[in-house]
Prior knowledge:
- The protein is α+β, with helices and mostly antiparallel strands and 1240 residues long.
- The chain has 7 domains: 82-160, no CATH class; 228-347, Cathepsin D, subunit A, domain 1 (Beta Barrel), CATH 2.40.70; 419-583, Ribonuclease H-like superfamily/Ribonuclease H (Nucleotidyltransferase, domain 5), CATH 3.30.420.10; 592-645, Roll (SH3 type barrels), CATH 2.30.30; 739-963, no CATH class; 977-1081, no CATH class; 1082-1239, Ribonuclease H-like superfamily/Ribonuclease H (Nucleotidyltransferase, domain 5).
- Helix content is 30%, strand content 20%.
- A 6-stranded mixed β-sheet has the order 6-1-10-9-8-7.
- Helix 1 (11-37) crosses helix 3.
- The radius of gyration is 40 Å and the shape is globular.
Amino acid sequence: VCPVLAEDATPEVTVLYEKSMKSFMKDDSLAQLVLVGSMDDANVELTATCDSAKSIWEKLLSVYEQSSGQRLDRLMEQFFRSEKDGDDDVVTHIAKLQKNFSELNDELKRVAKTTLPELLLMSRIMSTLPLEFFEFKSVWESIPIEERSVNKLTERLRLIEMRLPSKPDSTALVATKKKAAKKVERKCYVCRKPGHIAKDCWKKDKKQKTSGDAFVCIVEGVTEKEQWIADSGASAHMTSYRKYFLDFKEFPSPKPVYVGNNNAIMAYGQGTVNVDMKVNGKWVSNHLSEVWYVPDVSRNLFSVSQTLANGFVFRAEGNECSFTRDGHVRLRGIRTVNGLYALKMRVVCPEVPAEVCFASADQSLQLWHERLCHQNKTYVKEFLGQRGIEVCESKVSCEGCLYGKHQRGRFHERPSRPIVTGALIHADVCGPMQERSIGGSRYFVCFKDDFSRFRRVFFMESKSEVPNCLKVFLSEAKTAGHTIKDFLSDGGGEFKNSQVCGMLQSCGINIRYSMPYTPEQNGAAERENRTIVEAARSILHHKGLPLKLWAEAVNTAVYVLNRTGPTREKEKTPIELWSASSFNVHYLKVFGTKCFVHVPKQRRQKLDPKSVAGFFVGYCGEKDGYRVWLKKQNKIILSRDVIFENEASYSVIAQNGKSCSVVNEPSVGHGSEIELIKSSDVPDSDVCQEIGEASCDAIDSKESSDEQERNLRDRSMLKKPARYDNCVLLAEHAEPDTYKEAIASKESSEWPAAMKEEMDSLEANNTWELVNLPQDRKAIGSRWVYKIKKNADGTVQRFKARLVAKGYSQKVGVDFNETFSPVVRWDTIRTVLSVAAYKKLKLVQFDVKTAFLYGDLQEDIYMHQPQGFEDGTGQVCKLLKSIYGLKQAPRVWNERFKSFAMKCGLKQSNSDPCLFLNDEKSIYLIVYVDDGIIASVDEQAVKQFLEKLKSEFSVVIGVANYLGMQIECLEDGDIFVHQEGYCRKILKHFEMSECNSVSTPVEKGTITTDHSEFLPATVPYREAIGSLMFLAIVSRPDISYAVGVLSQVLDKPQQVHWSMIKRIMRYLKGTEKCGILFKCNEDNTLQCFTDSDYAGDPLSRRSTSGMIFMSYGGAVSWRSQRQSCIALSTTEAEFIAASQAAKEAIWLGNLLSELRCVSTIPVLQIDNQSAIRLVKNPEFHSRTKHIDIRYKFIREQYQTKQLDVVYCSSEMQAADIFTKPLVKDRFLKLRKSIGMHNFG
């Protein structure tokens, strides 16, 4: 406030006034600076005459402040004009409307002392819903008004949204086959055909075992084998009865169907089956489409998953199941004694036309017809008459001939054709092409006008965006002044869906589909695709251009055909009839001709060339210009300033060095086999660039240099997880990636409960409070992470949902400071287990639920409300406790638990910060984030600690199965550590479960490199190394050397390396339950072995160091590692290995000392006398002075009595297993000597 001086003020008051005024002017100047600094230039000029911060603020208020009436009008307009965003789910949309409604009511209450009723909000929600919820509106209107609420409406809409199919289909109960996920094309070594491997080959004699399940007859007259069974794992309806099919189409080649024992049975075709379904005591006729014919399937299978994909809801309650759609039950089933659901459905076999009567075999003409191999009966009668054999005349038909000679009816010409442009549009898709275009497309869709024969093509990456293409085409037709009356296409899913139908019906266009498997009824579109593809193939082959330019070739062919092709009116071209525009034929050039494009002066320097060479690949639509492919930059550019070489003289070799004559015609789908398409209104528009006034970087001088860019690994090289689409039974539970996937998954009843449990835990822990977001802060997001916890044998233990903050958006210094948090070493875990075996300690494993929530935050962090649990207020969560995903979460949890452990009388180990000790009660506590193991001989002390732990945190107590390590406490007190379940998981994942086992992980004499070709990127080499590495680190030192060698060639693996990986897996097959055994009666001396393989790497000639440390009979630490420098002698290699082992030995000695187990210093056992003398004495100076100083660390430790070095014979050198491949007997002997036992 500005100070005021009274007229009669005393001198003392005047001095104080001047001092206050000076301070006020300083603050006012600062306020003016802040205001002016936050304004744009226009507002600075607006307030230029203001002399104080107050006057500036009043000036801005007078210009920008809204009156109450203006704000009210704006809020009402926002509320009543808002529409649902297509990307928002129902809950998000309702939350937005609730926020608008709340703000509007607050303003009404302030201005008019009144509010709007909640019914208005519910009415507004219903009016903004898309067409998918149309049927729900009538259901909602039937609910009494007094029972309606926004929460009830939100919940019902959310449930309906979850049940909506991702690809709606209007066909009743039609099973639509999914497109199989992309996977590596494998080749069988039995039949030499792709698509499967030898063990799954259907040519092998693998007969399916028939089920011995009991049968309950629920449909009169239907036998057990004819009964239909609901199968949630079947990807399509399946039957073994060929007679069921109304129509049938054989597959080009048999398709394998994998059954529960991972064997394959074959499907030979598919078709439609008519059925009757019993609902409410009445039989209702229906049909099943795309039923697979599988002769070896033991029962008729009804695919639940395909039915759900078509909008049906499957419910199984007690002994009954039902399929409902639109609130009506369409099919029911009864549970049999074996747990399967037998459906109340019977097949209606196809009937023979009434005018056909079948003759029995005893009729003479029919009998002779059969004897003469079903020749024409007229000829049979004539032939027999010539030989004096009379047969009676009868109008009969042979059933065998109907099966063997049935021909399709003739297709007749349409009685009338359109006589105006736009009256009939033909549409069809073509693809996938064998190679992606430059823009990433694999399909194109063609729309052709029947009268003018004008065609329009769109290029797409997938079939899912045909509706977008159609929308653009309809808009173009309307602009050209044409009224489309009929739209003809096949019955594929890309055309026969609610989006396309709704679009055409809204425009008043009649929709016509060809019959299934009858492309002749849409012949104009089918023939057009063939014409376009043949033209594109010809022009690509003529100039030898690469296949990736197929989209440019197709676009050029369509451009030329539209301007030169025939029409119904002579002397007029399609483009003249469609858009009444003329065309100069001299504008056309030969596709693929070499040309030179002018580089504008804005895009080049003084001495740069004024042209760049390229190849003509098309025209620029209605613009006066050409499309040119720059081979070096692999770009398409547009330009009008182009000079062409002699068109007939130049051709270019395809980039891959192969002729383009191998271009195959893309498959043109029809019927229900066609899948969805994605479109673009310009071919490869994402790479099109113009040169001219709107110039781009295509001809930048830097890009024109000859320097070759480094090729980075494309994401397509990453191996995708295998997906088997034709599986009858699914063995694994899938973990969803998103909230929507969890709600829509088969475990939809489990995941909401898991999320509710997580939310309850968060609320009970007072993790956050809901507040309004401050203006100067941003809220971070959150997401749900789902995990299926499994037991050691792989069975499901529980479903777990974790709310995780999106910590990547946190800012250092604002949302966090320090982030480091330690985790326990595997060496520490194994050492404690060895001591536990020796002292016969009791082991208990525990898991702290929502551990990160117990840490207290020092910073203010705001987070959006969790998905699925929003309250619609628009408020955010101010975090009071740590939460998973925050950068500082591990650190604050670690500090919290450390504080708790010390309160319980435990002290932190000096060797490992995640190990806590109590010497008096012999309690050892290991913590890996939120998983821990407690070991003690005093069961009462363990019980007391666990009670304190439960009182402080929410804890789950379980068996000693820790971080994927299976820990078995044997009856004699020994402890056995292994990873049997993980081994089986690896073998199953890489399809090696049925392989033959071997005795060693790497064969003696195996080289690690050869001159064979590098592995293709699709081979999961890195994935296999990562899986095996975890085994080698945790419990399998016997494979450490083999895995270490193979991990050295991750960048360029060869076939020999992949063969070595498969050998390791074959070794694991025979040693699944091989692990480390810690014994209770072993000597307590720490055993340390170190060795090296001099110059064992054939490429780098570096040596390999090997070391193994054992405590109480079992290995607790080991390493197989290539040395970082080249050793010049065996002595030097051994000395370097010993120096590396010395550090680990001293650390382990200190750790065991803290555990009160070792009283002597560690002793390194080396099988090289020269290396031992070099450790003990500075000998051989001329031969060893070049050895790096850091390796002489071991000499210092020896001299200070921190460790000792002794000699052991090569025969007893246990570390030999980590340095080189060994023969079987030697390998098995050393494996046993390091405490490994195979109990499998």
